[in-house]
């Protein structure tokens, strides 16, 4: 009996896998509310010094140290309020001692780049965000 159950389970798993399109990924889980990100605040003074400098560069329009700075942020995690593609842009907050971009970012949204509607800080590469309160 145990062998029969194992075969049925294995057959079910295999048929499920065969039905998946190649390269398909499960969509990321949607949070209960994108307002959750907006309610968590961090003051500009509480950002790391590199974050304060990045924020000031954003408001000045650069120059930015990384080529990817200012590129469109896709919000695939859907942790920030939903807006049309191109509304949000991401910027690197350098991490001392790293030779790559690291995990820290500021994401700003708005129709005017030098006067964003809102900016968010993440220290964990988009796993969580806090709205920057200047």
Automatic annotation (TrEMBL):
This is Guanine-specific ribonuclease N1 and T1. It comes from the Bacteria. It comes from Hylemonella gracilis ATCC 19624. The lineage of its organism: Bacteria, Pseudomonadati, Pseudomonadota, Betaproteobacteria, Burkholderiales. GO terms for molecular function: hydrolase activity; RNA binding; RNA endonuclease activity. Keywords: Hydrolase, Nuclease. Signal peptide: none annotated.
């Amino acid at each position: 009996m145990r062998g029969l159950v194992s075969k049925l389970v294995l057959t079910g798993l295999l048929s499920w896998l065969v039905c998946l399109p190649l390269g398909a990924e499960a969509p990321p889980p949607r949070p209960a509310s994108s307002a959750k990100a907006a309610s968590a605040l961090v003051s500009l003074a509480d950002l790391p010094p590199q974050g304060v400098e990045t924020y000031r560069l954003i408001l000045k329009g650069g120059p930015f140290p990384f080529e990817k700075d200012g590129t469109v942020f896709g919000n695939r995690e859907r942790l920030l309020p939903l807006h049309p593609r191109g509304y949000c842009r991401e910027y690197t907050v350098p991490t001392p001692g790293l030779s790559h971009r690291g995990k820290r970012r500021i994401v700003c949204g708005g129709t005017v780049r030098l006067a964003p509607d809102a900016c968010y800080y993440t220290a964990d590469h988009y796993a969580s965000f806090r709205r920057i309160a200047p």
